[in-house]
Amino acid sequence: MQLETVINKLIRFIRNRTEALSITVTSGGVDSMEKYQYIIGQINALEATRQELSNLLNDKEQNGTVIDIKQKDNNPN
Prior knowledge:
single chain; mainly alpha; 2 helices
């Protein structure tokens, strides 16, 4: 499996898990302050991880093949 594919699948998993935790918090599924803090900590950690993975993916894209799209002037004056 390609590294890019793995990173994209991890990002998708993290996004889904973050959404599920957010829904738990916003729908009243938290019955104590400790549980609320724990879930918020998980969301923060998942978001930080997602951001790092996205940065790694962007670095890989930026270090790819560079193509010069400037038109060459065949008629020097």
